[in-house]
Amino acid sequence: MAMPWAMTLYGKDVLVALSGNFCGRPRIGLYHSANEPGMAKFEIPRRDSSANSYLARTNWLITKCFREGRIGDARRVFDQMCERDVVTWTTVITGYVKHGMVEEARRLFDRVDAKKNVVTWTALVGYIQDGQSEEALKIFSKMLVADGVKPNEGTFVTVLGACSDLAGLSEGQQVHQMISKTVYQGCAFVVSALINMYSKCGELGAARKMFDDGLTSHRDLISWNGMIAAYAHHGCGIEAIGLFNEMRELGVQPDDVTYVGLLSACSHAGLVEEGLKYFDELVKDGSIILREDHYTCLVDLCGRAGRLKEAFDFIKRLRNKPSASIWGALLAGCNVHGDLNIGKLAAKDLLEVESKNAGTYLLLSNIYASAGKWREAANMRLKMKDKGLKKQPGCSWIEIGNRPYVFVVGDKSNSQSELICSLLHDLHGKMKKVGYVPHDDLIMDEDFAIT
């Protein structure tokens, strides 16, 4: 028989003692501290008791372990179970995905010995949560040919998110066609995901059409927020404000998400005064709790407009410690407008909360360079290298005839790389003729290194 082991599930006072493999006599017990009066005990049944009760309680225990961040304990419980159902497998797979351990989730998924259901598949499509959207689409394709498994609302929302992340218009359109043949075509969450997908793929007109025609019932707040966010993504501030006003006229009350989209739209469109007005309105509305995203939007709004001192003073007045995103928005504004003094202060605070972000060093290096302080600029890049930080090379892709073509900065492996570079130089020249190309002289050789 295996040696007994114990793990703390609920702090010092409660232990889970586990012996053997849960089969037959060995069992799990939850014990309160002996110091507590009336010490109570709760046991997960032996295997020879009701199978349903055994599975329900062990599945519950695994869920608790993951919820408490006890990943190793969850896996030990799973490994010592002599019987598992689809809920067991799904619980562990979902737990791994939520904790960013997608490779472990995939390995477990591949050895599922119970019939995979839609929840199990959707958990794996959750690869998007770890930035592996291409893998998510591959898994979704396998799901479609799996016997008896059909996507549900959650699956469609997740896979549309993957399409949005990849700007995969053709894939998104195929998923849209599937949705149109299901009962989910009028679901608010699915329609919102479609709006987001078309917007991220550059099809703002299609996104608006989904908003106007996609819902079988009345529009709810989710769809309004989705369309406002789409306008924000494309810098259409006037349109976002118009939609916001229309929403309120129809009696739909905005929430915190609405204001994030609205403030972002004002920021991207340069509508500073309008953005400040709506932020002030938000502050005075006691029904909505302000969160980090609202503060970040306001700093970004002022930073893009060059009102950096105003943004910095606002940050200093915040009650809670500013997050990395807030300092990052200020530093980005300093980079655009070449404000070295505030830029140094922003970078210092940003590195305190996020010390391993190569982008911070590069932005401050660019700010130094724009001020003609080349030695300081070089020192920032040396510090970045000394810490083992690397800038991820820029990457883009295009699909022609269902074949993707990927382009990475500095990569000349493509047989037509000379022609591609020549066209880029021509485009660059035309951009200069029609407008300002910021910090064109600050691009350094190491920016093009392949990591």
UniProtKB/TrEMBL annotation:
Record's protein name: Pentatricopeptide repeat-containing protein
GO biological process: RNA modification
Gene3D superfamilies (UniProt xref): Tetratricopeptide repeat domain
Taxonomic path: Eukaryota, Viridiplantae, Streptophyta, Embryophyta, Tracheophyta
Native source organism of the sequence: Quercus suber
GO molecular function: RNA binding
Assigned keywords, A-Z: Repeat
Domain of life: Eukaryota
GN (gene name): PCMP-E15_0
PPR repeats: 85-119, 220-254, 255-289, 357-391
Alphabetized InterPro entries for the sequence: E_motif (IPR046848), PPR_At4g14850-like_plant (IPR046960), PPR_rpt (IPR002885), TPR-like_helical_dom_sf (IPR011990)
Alphabetized PROSITE patterns for the sequence: PPR
